[in-house]
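#onboarding

Welcome to the new folks! Below is a worked example of what a typical request in this channel looks like: someone posts a single protein sequence, and someone else replies with the predicted structure as tokens. Don't worry about understanding the tokens yet, we'll cover that in week two.

Example request:
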Amino acid sequence: MIALGIDVGSTNLKLCLLDNGSILKSAVLTHDGELASALERGFAELGLHANEHDAQAPSLSSIRSLVTGTEGRLRFKIPCEISAVAIERALLACGPSAHGARAVVSLGGEDLVAYSLDDRLHISSVVAGNKCASGTGEFFRQQLGRMNLKLAQLEDVAKDARVLRLSSRCSVFMKSDCTHRLNKGEATVGDIALSLSKVLADKVGEFLGKSRIDQGRVLLVGGVSQNRFLVDFLRQAWPQIDFVVPEAAPFF
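Example response:
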């Protein structure tokens, strides 16, 4: 059976096409609030077509679909589910990588959420919310954009960089601090990118502390989990925790 999962994030739209539970294709697209156009682009990436008379692509009317995510999911006329339930179902499909997991940390564009898990991989408590944009993925993406960088280029520019202490009280101070250091020649773009990654890792650590998770396995999901340096910082700071980034993390 072919099935389509759609997740409406604060900044990205994620789609995953499955065949009897096995992932066939996936797509992650920035939507900028324009869900309809992003969805159309996503269908094209997955090789789907809304016109059932198009013999060259599978018809959407023949595919079981479900949407989850932010309030944007309510704009879809298909069954919807809240994120917590979708995450529990995804954990069951993860196989060995989820065995013994104590928590799932979702690293999205505007939200950071830590889901504590019980022995059955059911969510037992949630720590969510972010008072400051400086700890979000969207802020990180914007700052990379100001330096004409993309996440895929991070590996090259930050490999031999150094971590600087940034004014992380709020996004305005941090943005000014980054700009000042670059203009004064006190830091390279790699230094700034690496330092911002450290800020994000510290924010995750703060949420783990609030969740009272200090050992065991923790799954990192969401677009920000693709930042290898952030994951490295977490592993260095919390050696007793087994941080795992599932293959399906970007569209978990």
